[in-house]
Amino acid sequence: MEEPLTEDMLAELLRAPDPRAFIKKADVGERSLSGYLAQLLEAKGLKRAAVVREAGINETFGYQIFTGARRASRDNLLKIALAMGCTLRETNRLLKAGGANELYCKSRRDAIIIFSIDRGASLQQVEEDLYRFGEPTLS
Question: Is residue 37 part of a domain?
């Protein structure tokens, strides 16, 4: 599910004869959380129920997040990303699609999460690291 880099898309936009041509060709639009979650599930061969369970989110609430019926908090989005084994780039895209701030390395808590995601840590490992450093956990 490799997407083009923003810099590459910007260069293509600036070469386009007008914005409509670029938008049509690049299929540019707002990314919905439910659409992005569906893409991730398919690309990673995961089942929604298993991800919701692994994330420790109530089954009904998790279903509503995945269908777009309810908004999720930033921490719940992070738990879903970790349960799906998302990369840092995928996690930030998921956060943005969910209307939350991307992870920011100048934030102590976010730096711990970024470091853990980069190392392929599980949700449980991230929770332990946050606790160990005296930061609020995700749960």
Answer: yes
